[in-house]
Amino acid sequence: MEPITDFQARIDAGVKIEPLDAMPEAYRKTLVRQISQHAHSEIVGQLPEGNWIGRAPTLERKAILLAKVQDEAGHGLYLYAAAETLGVSRQEMIDDLLSGKAKYSSIFNYPTLTWADIGTIGWLVDGAAIMNQIPLCHCSYGPYARAMVRICKEESFHQRQGFDILIQLSRGTEAQKAMAQDALNRWWWPSLMMFGPPDEQSSHSAQSSAWKIKLISNDALRQKFVDQTVPQAEYLGLKVPDDKLAWNETRGHYDFGSIPWDEFNQVIRGHGPCNADRMRARRQAHEEGAWVREAGNAYAAKHQGQHAV
Amino acid sequence: MLFEVFIRSQHGVAHKHVGSLHAADAEMAMANARDIYTRRNEGTSIWVVPSEAITASVPGEKDALFAAATTKVYRHPGYFKVPPEVKNI
Amino acid sequence: MGDSDLILSQRLGAWCGHGPVLEEDLALANVALDLLGQARMWLSLYGEREGLNRTEDDLAFLRDAGEFRNLLLVEQPNGDYAFTMARQFYFDAWHKLALDQLALSGDASVAAIAAKAAKEVAYHLRRSRDWVVRLGDGTDESHRRMQAAIDALWPFTGEMFDEYFNNLQPAWQAEIEATLNLATLTVPHDTWMHRGGRQGIHTEKLGPLLAEMQFLQRAYPKAAW
């Protein structure tokens, strides 16, 4: 059979694009941006949760949270590795993150104020991430698709552990129930904003769709998320902070209120509660780690060609 | 330095490429590979190879007609020589 | 054993998201998780044997500092990466020897926990040893920082060989000297040693650590999580 040479035809036929294949520059650039943004999100995402490792209320919860944050570091690594196959270096990507040039998911600019926030992040934020990630397992770029398969396998435990925390709280004391409701009140709208701007405002959509980089639209994913999550909130005995939320029998979906897009735009521009803190933490880690990285390189240079000590 | 990681799982027949990672030398790369790719005991045997050391064939329909051209495994920035006075790259 | 594992795990958990390179964030989280798992096994066993119905969580979250039996070494703060790796190396070298010895215990439960933990700790030791060598024999700056860390933490190492573990000192010393020589570092001279961990007499560092760790259980007594 003749190998398919036309780039779009290959994608349409479901053939994966691999690192050395010819590809339009726009395809390569879009992927670099998307994959590195995803990687940055995993890395920055360690901070709001890492904040509670030291204060987890039981040893089991501490272990589960440590494992989750560790997984997130791993996911960041898989994704940086996938992006590097497209000719960008880890260093360049990190520099872009720390300079503010590159973006990461807006959700991680919100603070984790109580233990219930940790449960809510697992339930809503990881829940939203999974919705985004499963379709990406079929994206056209081989290394990205394979990284996503790996990530999705590990991700399901993350959402379940978050929901489990909330089940426990919902069956607990009045103070614990109030803690859970308060967390939902603060994290609901930011979670819906994770799916990005409405379709009509999304500039990259059509081309990304044709190239199988973005497989389902923002609004479609957002609707699916609401439909799936509202019954879960009901199970927990929690009220979703949206007065317009109502099941629409005709549509077969939940209607929901308008998203505060002003807030979203402010947050992605750097004016969210934790943007400065997150960036400061990442810059500090990077700067204070410079002497460690240099030492590693210096040692390797001195001992080139020698075997294990 | 960039290393490619290959794992042969417990009941596997051959090493499979699972991804890449950064490390200053081979020993650290091995330790990192174990942490990143076998956290859940996914593999028994690990190979780490500097990406630079791998030679890859070039995809394309002309392979049969011409002597196979060979190249580096990715469009890797690691293959550009960085001047020694530049730090942290 | 359980308390040392728990306190050190608590210290290492603080590095999440702040390590010098992403691969290290992951590696440290791995060690923290291993140690936490071991702590839970030891504490559960202790709770069973004590016979006062205390669970691993009761022991971790409801004892005050005076009841903790961890080594003083592990409650020392993280400092810079050299400090963390020096603390880790001193501990891992002792820990491996201690576990190998406990794996021979006539007490089947103790032996079983120790044998399982020893496999994980062999790996921890390889990693911390590798870092001591690389930071010692890296750049002038890393050498300076690692030497400072080695010197500062030395006075916390004597306590490790009191009582039950005192036969392990020569083997530990040999490991330390071999590694520090390879790392081009100076082995510290014998000095006055801090003691008291096993009697519940701790340094000022343990209090704030426990205050943070135990906060939720103390603020919401009798709540289930």
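The beta strands of chain B are 2-8, 16-22, 45-50, 55-57, 70-72.
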